[in-house]
Design goal:
This protein is an alpha+beta fold. The protein is built from two helices and nine strands. The strands form four sheets. A three-stranded antiparallel beta sheet has the order 3-9-4, with no helix packed on it. It has a two-stranded antiparallel ribbon with strand order 1-2. The longest helix has 18 residues. The relative contact order is 0.15.
Length: 220
């Protein structure tokens, strides 16, 4: 079996527990070398550029990952990634990310910055895109000022509980004689009024499924 060259081997690296694999084929790398051949800077640079493109294609700017590591002021996210906390960032400095997401998540100061997504404490949901699974898609709001609204990437919804009703069974006892105060005589006409009431409060502070906490990161 013919041994693969270095340029053809699978590249793998771990980003906070996320394993990304990019297989570089012979067609991807423009130059190959033979024993004793004098290497040129141009050919090496072309190969490195092709490898960089392959790596970039594996995780393009705008890619979102769930990161199990700690992120804080003292512990920044891995290189090449930003925390999804809604922060406004520079459009020129993060040009590739700006080209990918634009102002979908907020237009920053309106001129030189834009917002990254803010996923703190939020679940993610796919856009409806004609599926009819999000009945309130038209009322979705912007994540930050200047961001998208309606059925689009970058929008958010507040929490809600689907409208429903609870059935109940009520039994009324009517006295047969005058032995009880405030009685109704079975043989005579009577009337009574049912007043609106509510049940006792039950449950926690929100409606939620079982969940686990992670830090969401975005590739720039």
């Amino acid at each position: 079996m013919k041994r693969m060259s270095t340029w053809q081997r699978a590249m793998a690296w771990s980003v906070g527990g996320l394993l990304v694999a990019a297989v570089v084929s012979a067609a991807t790398v423009p130059n190959s070398f033979s024993a004793g051949e004098v290497l040129s800077a141009q050919k090496l640079n072309d190969n490195f550029a092709a490898l960089a493109d392959a790596v970039r294609a594996a995780t393009p700017p705008g890619t979102i990952i769930a990161y199990a590591g700690i992120v804080s002021d003292q512990t920044p996210p891995p290189k090449g990634w930003l925390t999804c906390d809604g922060t406004p960032i520079d459009r020129a400095m993060y040009g590739d990310l700006f080209a990918a997401i634009g102002t979908a998540w907020g237009n920053g100061n309106g001129t030189t910055t834009f917002n990254v997504p803010d996923f703190r404490g939020r679940f993610l949901r796919g856009t409806d895109s004609g599926s009819g699974r999000d009945p309130d898609r038209g009322g979705r709001g912007s994540s930050n000022n200047g961001g998208n609204t309606g059925d689009a990437v970058g929008t958010v919804q507040g929490d809600d509980f689907r409208s429903h009703a609870h059935g109940y069974h009520a039994i009324f006892t009517i006295a047969a004689d005058n032995s009880q105060p405030n009685h109704y005589n079975r043989t005579g006409a009577f009337s009574f009024v049912l007043k609106d009431n509510t049940s006792y409060n039950a449950g926690g502070n929100e409606t939620r499924p079982q969940n686990a906490g992670v830090n969401y990161l975005i590739k720039y």
